[in-house]
């Protein structure tokens, strides 16, 4: 099922009201502060120079020299990758973000979901989300690099890796290893629709051709370039998120929930009844994430202000 967090329209349709706190996604609710932008980014078509400047900033931020392409979110890369080669047998380390399997099946791939990293070996295309969404499972970079020769091509989705750069294999991206990075989650600007794919030059050229001449808007190119270079904000944000995940886990423990795992941007919990918990939070206009394959798992993002923390604590009490 192609269900997602962020479906706040469903929340308002079911429970009504306004002033919702959307904790159903892993999006940072204290985003990078967008400055005033020069008028030309709104009025002019995006230039190659602007695209190149953004890729250089992304390469520096993600510690890679591999060729890269900026796209309308990591989601666009997920939809394009199945078309890079004839369909075959894909294996996905699961459970995970469901768009990978959905995009592959739509393109005619045979998709098998496996529960262990070693079981990806032998696939024409292997997919690993690292750190994983929704359970936060992560694999050392050396383990992923060691697996790459045993598959036709491997895609590593690092959408939640910004706070944990040691996990990244972006520096090893190449012909048989495509690395995806998200911008909207950690920098909290998901509406910008910006993400990246790093690989070898030929693969990047294929993705660029499929994406068309202007896959990223001018304001997104400018904001992305500036934000990726703001290392002070990055460091302060990682420290804040580290403290706040512990705070959220403490709230959950007091409610009697068990921590399954998570990342710096979301936490997943074992609850007695996920639907009941979601509905109780929804009555306080707090939207959470449940999963169609589990009656007990519930995921929460991090509140963005002390007022939001207070509302969540009261609703969980």
Automatic annotation (TrEMBL):
Keyword hit for Manganese: no
Catalytic activity field: O-phospho-L-threonine + H(+) = (R)-1-aminopropan-2-yl phosphate + CO2
Superkingdom assignment: Bacteria
Associated pathway: Cofactor biosynthesis; adenosylcobalamin biosynthesis
Stored Pfam families: Aminotran_1_2 (PF00155)
EC number in record: 4.1.1.81
Keyword Lyase part of the UniProt annotation: yes
Top-level class of the enzyme under EC nomenclature: lyase
Keywords, comma-separated and alphabetical: Cobalamin biosynthesis, Lyase, Pyridoxal phosphate
GO molecular function: threonine-phosphate decarboxylase activity
Co-factor requirement: pyridoxal 5'-phosphate
Residue ranges of domain Aminotransferase class I/classII large in the record: 67-302
InterPro entries: Aminotransferase_I/II_large (IPR004839), CobD (IPR005860), NHTrfase_class1_PyrdxlP-BS (IPR004838), PyrdxlP-dep_Trfase (IPR015424), PyrdxlP-dep_Trfase_major (IPR015421), PyrdxlP-dep_Trfase_small (IPR015422)
Function: Decarboxylates L-threonine-O-3-phosphate to yield (R)-1-amino-2-propanol O-2-phosphate, the precursor for the linkage between the nucleotide loop and the corrin ring in cobalamin.
NCBIfam families, A to Z: L_thr_O3P_dcar
Record protein name field: threonine-phosphate decarboxylase
Organism of derivation: Mesobacterium hydrothermale
